[in-house]
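Let us practice reading a record.
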Amino acid sequence: MAITQLPSTHEGERHMFPTGDIHRPRGFDPSIDVSGLVDMDGGYLDRAIFTDQRLYEQEQARVFATSWLFLGHVEQLQRPGDFFTTYMGEDPVIVTKDKSGRIRAFLNSCRHRGARVLRADYGQTRAFTCTYHGWSYDLEGRLISVPNEAAYPEGGWDRDQWGLLEVAQLDTVLGLIFATWNPQAPTLDEQLGDMKYYMEAFLDRDSEGTTIVGGITKWILKGNWKLAAEQFGTDWYHVNMSHASALMVLSPTGRGPKKEIAETPGRQYSDERGNGTGFPTHPKSRFDAQPVHEYYDYAALAGRLGQARVQGPMTTGHATVFPNFSYLPVNGSIRVWHPKGPDEIEIWAWTVLDKSMPEEVREAQRLYNLRTFGPSGIFEQDDGENWSEIQAISRGWQTNRVPLNYQMGIGSEREDGVYPGSTSTLYSDSAGRRFYRRWAELMNTPAWHETEQS
């Protein structure tokens, strides 16, 4: 695999002032063709995609500015005026419920001098008021108050033109809120496609839906966001090695799982939109907290979801919705990988439960989630160490001359007649290849904001 030479750029050429309509995004001058960095037909990857600052900036404009991104759970907004703040890529965002009960999302940046309008993580309010100069916005994003407004020029000032910038599209699926800046993006249902079938095995077990407990746990790791998103979409391969000590702790004998479970059969789904999930299909491949396991009526769930979903995607699986939303069905963990530069991830994680769960089962699942995949969880520690280790050595000269291998499972993809879409064996890089193929496609395609300005 040939290593692509990244072209140089000049600081003064990278950012241009917006022209014309004040709502038009700033210009973007793409300069890097990533075709030589991603060869998913052959199964090779150049690790420059994890370290190069210019590629990271291009990601913000062509991956995060164009994709559907996870914002939060609908249970975080109970009544009009409730809000929480989050990120879409590195853009800060306010998510709120307006007076009519509609969920909306706005760029968390005052239109006057650009400070964040809201600095709280969550709360309840009647209006959003910037603490810098006092510009105030209602729950629909309209500018409603400007101190000393009479000083603005007569005839040249139109308050209606200076409301908060709202996302182009927002939708919910199975209790989860997603949004995109891209007015040309396909619908959320189209983006998910068959992936929704697999998500339902986790998020549609209860006719009453899901809820969240314990708030949001947040922590920071050294590592590129794609390393985490890729693993959750494709990598069962690391489990027996990386998590050997954790599996010993959780096994009844203390010696780890039996051979037929450690080498479990399973499937891995992937699609051309970059989504991926893998799951064992052995009936004993479950590592639930005991009260949670005893709570479920698997026969009733098979009637609701189908036996294939109960024996497969509902087990100890893993999943990523492209680009940076992931979940683990077995312990109710959902998380988003917020990029904070090419070398750092800020991880936000929630515990999601069936609404019908009694209090003691909810508490058992909350604690189990924290102990396994919380920031100090016995599995999470292993994963974070791996990502940080990869990142720590990825800037070396000789290290960067050697491509990474993503060849496992090439040619094993097929439609098996049991699970929707294209699936591979459980031990496979198939979903990883699809993830990076989609990433490269977006990186090499002019985004909606570029075509609007051409």
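A brief commentary: The two ends are 34 Å apart (CA to CA).
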